[in-house]
Structures are given as C-alpha cells and as structure tokens.
Amino acid sequence: MAQSPLADRLQWAGSERPSDIPDDAFRLLVESVRDYAIFMLDPTGHIATWNAGAERIKGYRAAEIVGKHFSVFYPPDVVASGKCELELAIATEQGRFEEEGLRIRKDGSPFWANVTITALRDAQQRLVGFAKVTRDLSERRAAEEETRRFRLLVESVKDYAIFILDTSGHVATWNAGAERIKGYRALEIIGKHFSVFYPPDAVAAGICETELTVAEATGRFAAEGTRVRKDGSEFWASVTITALRDPNGELIGFAKVTRDLTDRLAAEESRRDLAVQMAALAEKARIQEFQERFLGILGHDLRNPLASMDMGAALLRQRTEDANSLRIIDRIQTSSLRMSRMIEQIIELTRSRLGGGLPINARPVDLEQVLLSMVEELRAAYPEQAIELSCEPTTGHWDPDRLEQVFSNLVSNALAHGDPTKPVSIRLRREEGAVIVEIHNHGVPLTEELKARIFDPFRRGDRDSRTQRTAGLGLGLYISNELVRAHGGRMEVESSTAEGTVFRVILPPEAPASALAEAPIA
Amino acid sequence: MTHTVLVVEDEEDLREMIREALEMSGYTVVTAAEGQAALDAIESIEHVCVVLLDLLMPGMNGWDFFAELRRRPGFKDVPVVIHTSAPDRAPSGATRVIQKPLVLARLLSLVGEFCQS
User: Computed over its alpha carbons, how large is the radius of gyration of chain A?
Assistant: First the structure.
C-alpha cells in the first residue's frame, strides 16, 4: 500500500488526534474498509492513496491507479463538461462536495455511486488535497427500482384489489383494482378500517378480527364470501390476507388481495343450471322410454293373450249347445271383456300420469248428437231404467269420441249407483263462454269422504257392494276428469239426500290447441 | 285353386287360435312367427288371398315385411290386413288396418271379404 505523504499532516476535525492510538492505526483502518472506496487526491485531483474498498468497487489495484487523475472514474462526456474541476472547486470552496451519479469501473462498466469529496487542510489552512469516499449504490438503486416497478405493477392491476392494511386493519395503500372492485378512491378509503368492506352482520360477528388473527397466527387467511361495495351493493369475493413481517419477524401489517368472483359465480351457476337441465332431460327421456315400454306391454303383450282367450271362447260357443258350457263360456268372455277394459284404463292412466296428459283430437262437434247416440246405446243396454235427456242445440270444437267416453262413464255410474226406480237425467245447456252438461241421479248420496277423492285414481266407490262385481279399477272418473281437463274444462260434483247426485262437466266452446298433442304409442 | 290365408303373428297362442278359427271355417292357413319366415313361406304358397299381419314382432317386423312384400313381383296386389295395437303407426298402403284386440266375428268377416272357404 502506498504511503500517503499527507497522512501525517491531517488535521482531525474538532479534536486532537488521540495520543494513545498509533498513527498507523488509522491508515490500517481505512485501508481495510471494503464497503467504501476511500482514497486521497492531491490538490490537482491526482490519486494519492488507495484502499481495499476502492479496489473492490472500481477494479483498479493501487499500483496502477495511484498518480492518475480521478477523472478516469467518470464517463468521458462528463469529463469533457469540466465536472471534475467543478467538484474540486466546490469542495475547495465549501469544504465538501456530495452527489449521487454514474461512475465507471476499470472494465468500463458503469455503476451508481454516492460520492463525497472533502477538502483536506493543514494547520495553516493550506489545501493539501481531498479525501474522496465513494459508495457503490447499484444494489440499493436496483432494489429501489424494483420497488418502484412493483409498486407501479400493483397500482395498475385492475382485476384484483391489492392493498395493505396496518396492523390494526386500517387501509394503508390502494390500487386501481381496489378502486374498480370496491368503488372507493384512494383518498376516501386510506385510513379507514377494512370492516367497511363487509356486510354489517359479518362485522358484528367479529369476522374482521378473526381474519386478522388467523393471518397473524398462521401467516395467511383465505376465504370466499360476500363483500360490500361503496354503493352498498354486495358481491361474491375471494379474499386472501397475508401477514407482512419485517426482517426481525415483527408484524408490520397485512397484504389483502380481493378478487370479484361474481362473473365466475354466474358462470358456475349457469354451468350448474345446464347440468340440472341435462339431468332433467335425461330423466324425461328415461321416463319416456319406460312409458313407451310400459304402454307396449299393456297394449300388446297383455292384450294378445286376452284376445286369444276371447277368440277361443267364441270358437267353443260355436261348437256347443250345452247350457252349462255356454254359461262357462259367458263367464270367460265377460271376464276377458272386463280385463280388456281395465287394460284400456291402465293405458289411459299411464298416458295421463307419465305422458303429457291424455291426447284429444278436437274437431267440430254437434254435442247434442253425441249425447243422443250415447243415450240410445245405454237405453238398449239398460232397458229397464229411464234416461231423460234435455238439450239446447250446441256445437263446438272438441273430441267427440272422448266426450262420449266421459258422458257414457258418468251416465253408467248414475245408472249403476242411483235409485233404479227413478230416472237418470242428462241436461245440456250453454252459458256465457261455457257449455255445461249435468248428469243427475237420485238415491243414496256420496259421503263427504268419497266426494273429496272422487276423481282420484284407484279409488274404490265401496258404498255399494252390489256393484262390486262390475267395478273396475276405480279409474273411470279419474280418466273422465283427465279428459275434461284435456279439453280445457273441469268437473264438479254435488251430492245430497234431498237433491241426489249431480256430476257437472264444464267445457270451453273450443278445446285449447295445446291439448291436440299426439298420443304416445301403445 | 286353393285360397290360403297367411297369418303373421309372433304370439303363439293367438296365432294358433286364429288358425283354429279360420280352419274351422274352411280356410287353408299358413302361419309365420315373424317377417322373414313369412317371406320364405309366401313364395311356396299357390295363391294367397289375404295376409293377416302383426307389426310388433321380434326378427323382421311387420313394417319391413310389408315393404319387402310390395317390392316382390307377384305380391304387389296381395291384400294385407294389419292388426295392431298401434293403428296410427301402420304403414300406408295397407289394404286394411284393424285395432287389436281381434275378436272372432271381426276376423271371420274380414277374411270372408278376401277369401273363399
């Protein structure tokens, strides 16, 4: 290390050099400092001493730099501007010059430096040179730059609210995302407690304290939940709170990142809806398939053996005159006919329950004519019973076969359950916007209990054991009611000891178009 | 000339009952349980006066049988009576479509229209 001719002449500011410290000690101290380049310039700016820090920072060894002008540390254009002379002049004038600026290493690479030049004077105040201390700020500058960029990044993020809470939960920073998502501007929210982002009941439940406590204890708190915007509207948010600690582990605050999940939630909901719809469609298809198979079994597989039984009985009838055999054949054919009707009813029930209701084929109908032909048939079937019919001429748009089925069912019931000594009467009349057919019989009235469930399927009208033999499945009135409903109409029943029983069919003048759906195939 | 009724029906009891009924009434009857067997049989019958055809059958169904029969020369005009539980789905061009269940009187009157016993 080169000896400084100036060293011994240095004056110590404010005090005498402590006598018990050897002269050499200070030189050794300076020479060993590695974090600072500390060296001396003579009054003309030539380098007089060099230390370990100078070698580390600037890259020159002492032997190659001592005696050179300190301008070698400056970019050429700076040197050309006369800055080196200016710095020395300022230091000479004011005792000290300090700045931060670019300097050049031996290898030509620039670095950011903090530079101090101090004028050194002897006891007679003569300028003996300059002490130059240079500190490499590259790392600090890089860290500052990184911080600046990071801050810019955070501030410009729009999809996330990113901000810092102090240790007590008050908002300390704010970014563009936070403004967009929560609606507050930085000025109006910084300093406020973060509980303003929560619904009041959540705040009352202590959720804010819980979140900070969890974040402090475990480092992090994450959840999804309802948050409140400045305008009071709520949104579904994903929230992360991270504890911020200094290098000593001391809590200095919390980073809070909030994401508005409303869009994601809506997308998830529509996905879920879609899945539900698809499941419903699949279920519908499954029911449809079951229905068609079931109706196929009823319509085809059960009817066929019945048809062969009936045909067999009919064949036997042709081949015998024996009264006992004929009675047995009667039984077989009556039973197979009943069975056939019950199968028909089960098909109707299945269509009305599993399908979209009973199908009707509406067309222009003279209702009086329908009732007349039906009554004619029933009079032939029940010659001993009186059937009275009174009609206003009435035409409309209905399914005549289905209506005949309904009225035939109602009149047959009236004949079977009513007082056989008194007539069953049928009355057709028109009212404003409706056509009404009433079927009336005298006799024992319906019980309230039976009346309440008169149109339920599989109901047994068990008040009259005489009719048990001809009773079906208890589906006749259910199917009639369904057929009237398919026409857009309804049925009513009234029953009393004095007045007897009235079934009333109320139809619109035209069956609605929606009732014209095709029948499922049996 | 012998007049033969071809009965195509998969349900054995019903098929045999129809045969009984028709044979008792003096007709000649050939039966088949499904369409392909019926196509095979019909070629060897001297004169078919009517085909009584079910639609829903395992193997070749009634629709395919009917279409194939109409494609074959010599069978374009053979009367085909379809008896089915789904009359609205019967193929167009059938001579007659009747709803199951088939009752004896209806069967005999129908066959009587097309055949001599």
Answer: 53
